[in-house]
Specification:
The complex is a heterodimer of chains A (677) and B (100). With 677 residues, chain A is mainly α. Chain A is built from 28 helices and two strands. Chain A is globular, with a radius of gyration of 30 Å. In chain B, α1 runs antiparallel to α2 and α2 packs antiparallel against α3. With 100 residues, chain B is an all-alpha fold. Classes of the chains: A mainly alpha (677), B mainly alpha (100).
Amino acid sequence: MVSASAYVPAIVLLPFVSFLVALFGRENLPKKGAYGGIAATAGSLALSLWVLVSVRNGDAFQETYYTWATGVGAQDWTLTFGALIDPLSALMLVIVSLIATLVHVFSLGYMNDEGERDLPRYYAGLGLFTASMLGFVIADNLLMAFMFFELVGLCSYLLIGFHFREPGPPSAAKKAFLVTRFGDYFFLVGVVAVFTTFGTAAFAGAESFPAIAEAALNGEATVWTPGGLDVSTWFTVVGLLVLGGVIGKSAQFPLHTWLPDAMEGPTPVSALIHAATMVAAGVYLVARMYGFYVLSPTAMGIIALVGGFTALFAATMGVVKQELKQVLAYSTISQYGYMMLALGAGGYVAAVFHLTTHAFFKALLFLGAGSVIIAMHHVEDMWEMGGLKDRMPVTYWTFLAGSLALAGIFPFAGFWSKDEILYEALIHGLDEPLILAGYVMGLLAVPVTAFYTFRMVFLTFHGEPRSSLARDPHPVRWNVKGPLSVLGILAVITGGINLVPVQKVLGIEGIDYLHLWLDNHWGGIEGLSSHHYADLDPYSSTYLFGGEVPTVLAGAAVSLGLALAGVGLAWVLYNVAEPTEHTVKLGGVRDLLYNNYYQDEFQVWLSDRTRDTAGGADTFDQGIVDGVVNGVSSVSLLSSERVRRIQTGIVGNYALLLTLGLTTLLVVFGLLGGWFL
Amino acid sequence: MVPVEYYLLLSSAIFCIGLFGVLTRRNALYFLMSVELMLNAANINLIAFSFQWGNLTGQTFALFTIALAAAEVAVGIGIILVLYRNFGDIDVMDAATMRW
């Protein structure tokens, strides 16, 4: 029996091969490279499922494939590529490859059937994007993770700017690249700091940096700190540096501004970015090195606060948007805020749970939006839609399932995961003001989320058609309906993998599968279990109303009640034949929200203020650094210009030089040898 | 028997004449002849020392040098012919077009 572990590199390499095929095959490929991409990602999916099953059978492992640099002397670091397959990465592999496969199939309908040009470039980008994310997921050390993190960023740049002939997409692509790069700068410094502090960047094992950090805090190991800084303070600093990259990629406040603009990319790409790859990478990174973050209460508090704030902040902006994909973009920022809140509040499993369910329902919503956009001949304004319910039933019902999940309505997937996040934040937050603040903001975001989600649903699908396009929509084919149906089913049932509230209230043991899974119940790698993290985290649990069960019920009732209130408000205001724009009544607040709290303007203002500093740095770079290099080359150029003049081309001159040289040598040797004395 | 110093004086005189020719002449044929003189100056040295020490190695080398000189002349004449075809003259100063 061949072990699944031997095929782990193939999971990454298959989409990479499809990238190469699409790159060099160009226009000759069947369906312009789509079939190759589907085959490759489906192969990755099959292998990922196999890996998942083998991890279920206790076959988690860590393996180094290639050592590409070895340090010498005191800094004997080794830089390696390797795979770390444990319950977390096996689960993520399945999510990423599944979404990627469905996105490839959907692209047949969204790109090929719509007659887009340059499709091999598109499929090459998708292949590389998937390969980079899968490589990031299996990474067994921070440096390898960083490299694939950057590749993911590059691919998002290429795909967001796919329609580079129009003015919007290239600019959005540049913005996405620069804003995430700003965060990655801190990440890179963090990677170097991890290496200098611990001498390793491995995620797992006794010699990994979380393990060494834990030992150092217990006084069992010594690590380098700058200027003899306190160990725990320094760990907080390192954690926050790495968090910079996470905030950029996962679009958390204040680096979230790139994400709404990234809607300029093709809709399937948006689905991939939001559900499984780019944005998920940030949250996954925190989960991957969670053993390090739990050691620093300050960093955890900041993560929770940033997450909670982003959840509320982005949700409010989603309320006033006119375009379908814009609403979804802000909902993504908000949902990733929830995941960060969960991570900061010690809810490791809750965060991974929400990452999973969100991947399914957000991919579903984006693909549903893509289906609507095909039907509407690429009009995205919701005020042009309406009444699509009867004209595209598959899209409507699946989109509705996704929306119910996003709004957190019982018993759809999003309800279970969001509820668990809020529950974790509540029980840990009663003693921790930072987390309590995150909880309150997360709770306030619930009705807002439900409201904007159903405003979107009602405006798009209910009421009377508000334009001729909506009266006679373009039909969609199997390649759109198929992925939608798969994801629609997943959005309904995924909550079943982790029915913690049911277990607690009814006392049925063993139905919290995700908890058991991440707790190495079926085997895993020591030190990477949720149990281990729970032992380390600095929080104590406090229950309301005298017990766990009442707290669970009260928390669930409050969040479900708020969500239903949000849906109800949307129902009253927008589920009418001829809806009007009620948000206009908000006046100045609406302008503030519609302009994203003037965040973009603020960032432009900030970059104007720093222009002088940047100019100074540029002068230094061009003048001093480049000047030295250019100086060396111009000196040699100039001297060679002079020296080559002695080569006259006249043979007599050469003979003369030879003779004179010989004579000089003779005289010198004669003098030294004492002939003339 | 003539002492070896006289042979050495003769050979260095011939060598200097050859060197003078190379340094002063512009005609390539004079060049060839001057080089021939210098080679033969070396030959005289070889044979003189061979005679002095009663060792035949020097004479063998002299024979090799003569054969080499013949080959050198063949190549040299070929170069001069090409020079003439390209520049219409055999002045060595003309052939300076391949410098920088």
